[in-house]
Amino acid sequence: MDLLIVLLATGSATMVMTIFSHILSWYTDYVFNEAHLLNLLFDNAKESIKRRKNINHINGWLVHIAIGLGMAIGLYFAFLTASLMNNLLKAIAWGILAGGLGIIGWMLLFNVYGKPEKTSLKPFFVQLVFAHILFTLVCFAVFKFFH
Fold first, then answer.
1. In the predicted model, is pLDDT for residue 13 greater than 80?
2. In whole angstroms, what is the distance from residue 10 CA to residue 65 CA?
């Protein structure tokens, strides 16, 4: 049952986070969708002259969902330890922490592979924190619903 709860939380939270990123991308004309950015970085990493430039390739989505699963598992353990994530405020704090870790990860990726076009770092990092707060709140809601 726990695995199903974590998978449901992962799918729901990743969907909400992705919708949020898509809306901001549409509104600002920057690329904020994490899976799309991963695909652009994968293309930057290739040494071939012919680049795919397919921002919707499955590789970026698989990596993004796998990272989301890892985060949801960690959040589930935090949820099961009552004092770590037993209310909305603590869930928001975990989201801010996750967003900070996400910023560090993306900074490393951008340093290694370069920043893709139409990506402005400050707005991307700000939206990344809010996206992770949403992710964590959705996970918290799913966990709370089933416990």
1. yes
2. 8
